[in-house]
C-alpha cells in the first residue's frame, strides 16, 4: 500500500485551502497575534462560532498591545457567549505578558510559548508552526481522526492519543510545516469528516488503511463516556422600583470565573424547594417561581435552573450590580445567564 506523502497533501491544500480571517494569504507571512488569538478561540469551539468573535476582537484590538491595554471587563464582555471563559482571562493575561515583558513579540519556540498564560501543548505547536514556520507536531481532533483512519488505529480515544501523535509526527515535514498543519485540519474538516467521509476525493485515499479495510467511518474509536449528571438550582430575578435588576460577578476562578450572573443558589443534584432557596437569596422578598425551567449543558454536567422573581424594598442594599433592562446587553453574561434573562423577561412581565 502506498505511504501518505506530505507533498501530496500540500499540493491538495494549495488548490483547496479554506479562506479564514486569521489565515495569511498564499505567499504572505502569518501574523502571530492573529494566529494566537484564533487558536485560543478555537479551543473546543467550532470555526463557524469563532469567526464573528475573531472579527470583532481584531476590529476592536488589532494588535497585542491594544488587547493588553484593554480593561479585563471589556475583554470578558466581548467574549461573552463563546464559552470556556477561563480562556478569556488567560487571553488578557497572555496579551499583557507579551506586550509588557516581551516587547510585543511572541516567542517562536514551543517551550517558550508554553510558558505563556493559556497556551498548552497543542496551541504552542500550532503557533510555532503556523506563525513561525517551525516544525511542530500539531494534533487536534481533526488530526486525530485523520491519523486514526490513515493508519487504521482501532484503539479507542483517549488511550490512543500518544500513538496518534507519534504517527502525526512521522508525517510532519520540515518544509512548510504551518501549511501542512492547516492542510491536515482542512482535510479533517472538509473531507475526512466524522460522518460520511468523502473518501473518493481524498488526496490520501490510496494510502488510507481504514478505507481499504472498510472501517473508516468507525474510527476513531472512543471509549464510552459516563453519562453527565444533572445539577439544579434557583436563580433570583430581583427587580428594583425603577425596573433595574440585580446581577453579581462570579469569583475569578472556577466555572464561569469573572463573568456576570443572575444571583442563584449553589447548583446541586437535588431539587430545591423555594423555601430552602429563599434562605440563600440576595435579599428578603416575597419570591414567586416562574413557570418552566432553563436548561444548559456544560462539559461535565447538565444544569436545570428555575427562576424566582422578587421585588427589592426601598431600603434593600444587596451586594451586586444594579442594571437597567436596556443595558443588560452590555454585561459579560455567559450563555446560561442569557437564557435566565430571556426566561425572566418572557415570563415575568
What does this structure look like?
The chain is of the alpha+beta class. It has two domains: 6-218, Endonuclease III, domain 1 (Orthogonal Bundle); 230-347, Alpha-Beta Complex (Nucleoside Triphosphate Pyrophosphohydrolase), CATH 3.90.79.10. It is built from 14 helices and seven strands. Strands 1, 4, 5 and 6 form a four-stranded mixed beta sheet that branches. Strands 3-2-7 form a three-stranded antiparallel beta sheet, with no helix packed on it. Strand 5 and strand 6 (302-311) form a beta hairpin. The termini are far apart.
Write the layout of secondary structure elements.
Blueprint: H1 6-16, H2 32-41, H3 47-60, H4 64-69, H5 72-79, H6 86-101, H7 110-113, H8 121-132, H9 141-150, H10 161-171, H11 177-190, H12 209-213, E1 230-239, E2 245-249, E3 260-261, H13 274-278, E4 288-289, E5 294-297, E6 302-311, E7 321-323, H14 335-347
Parallel strand pairs: 1-6
Antiparallel strand pairs: 2-3, 2-7, 4-6, 5-6
Mean pLDDT: 95
Kindly state the number of beta strands.
7
Reported by name, the CATH topology of the largest domain is Endonuclease III, domain 1
Low-confidence stretches: none
The helix-strand sequence is: HHHHHHHHHHHHEEEHEEEEH
Distance between the termini: 68 Å
User: Please, what is the CATH homologous superfamily of the largest domain?
Assistant: Hypothetical protein, domain 2
- Oligomeric organization of the protein chains: single chain
Report the sheet-strand fraction.
5-15%
- Describe the biggest sheet? 4 strands, mixed
Nearest-angstrom radius of gyration? 24 Å
Work out the count of structural domains.
2
Amino acid at each position: 500500500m502506498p505511504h501518505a506523502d506530505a507533498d501530496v497533501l500540500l499540493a491538495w491544500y494549495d488548490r483547496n485551502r479554506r479562506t479564514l480571517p486569521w489565515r495569511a494569504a498564499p505567499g504572505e507571512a502569518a501574523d502571530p497575534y492573529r494566529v494566537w488569538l484564533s487558536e485560543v478561540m478555537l479551543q473546543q469551539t467550532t470555526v463557524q462560532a469563532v469567526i464573528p468573535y475573531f472579527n470583532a476582537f481584531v476590529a476592536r484590538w488589532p494588535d497585542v498591545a491594544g488587547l493588553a491595554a484593554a480593561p479585563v471587563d471589556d475583554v470578558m464582555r466581548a467574549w461573552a457567549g463563546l464559552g470556556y471563559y477561563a480562556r478569556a482571562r488567560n487571553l488578557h493575561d497572555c496579551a499583557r505578558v507579551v506586550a509588557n515583558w516581551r516587547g510585543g513579540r511572541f516567542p517562536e519556540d514551543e517551550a517558550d510559548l508554553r510558558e505563556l498564560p493559556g497556551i498548552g501543548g497543542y496551541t504552542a505547536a500550532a503557533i510555532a508552526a503556523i506563525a513561525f514556520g517551525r516544525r511542530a507536531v500539531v494534533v487536534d481532533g481533526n488530526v486525530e481522526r485523520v491519523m486514526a483512519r490513515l493508519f487504521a488505529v482501532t484503539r479507542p480515544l483517549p488511550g490512543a492519543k500518544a500513538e496518534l501523535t507519534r504517527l502525526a509526527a512521522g508525517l510532519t515535514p520540515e518544509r512548510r510545516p504551518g501549511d501542512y498543519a492547516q492542510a491536515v485540519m482542512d482535510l479533517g474538516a472538509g473531507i475526512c469528516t466524522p460522518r460520511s467521509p468523502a473518501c473518493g476525493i481524498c488526496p490520501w485515499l490510496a494510502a488510507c488503511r481504514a478505507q481499504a479495510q472498510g472501517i473508516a467511518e468507525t474510527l476513531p474509536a472512543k471509549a464510552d463516556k459516563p453519562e453527565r449528571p444533572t445539577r439544579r438550582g434557583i436563580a433570583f430575578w430581583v427587580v428594583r422600583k425603577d425596573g433595574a435588576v440585580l446581577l453579581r460577578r462570579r469569583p475569578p476562578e472556577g466555572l464561569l470565573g469573572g463573568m456576570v450572573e443572575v444571583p442563584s443558589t449553589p447548583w446541586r443534584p437535588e431539587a430545591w424547594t423555594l423555601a430552602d432557596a429563599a434562605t440563600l437569596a440576595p435579599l428578603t422578598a416575597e419570591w414567586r417561581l416562574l413557570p418552566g425551567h432553563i436548561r444548559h449543558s456544560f462539559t461535565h454536567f447538565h444544569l436545570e435552573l428555575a427562576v424566582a422573581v422578587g421585588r427589592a424594598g426601598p431600603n434593600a442594599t444587596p451586594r451586586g450590580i444594579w442594571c437597567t433592562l436596556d443595558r443588560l446587553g452590555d454585561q459579560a453574561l455567559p450563555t446560561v445567564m442569557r437564557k435566565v434573562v430571556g426566561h425572566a423577561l418572557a415570563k415575568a412581565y
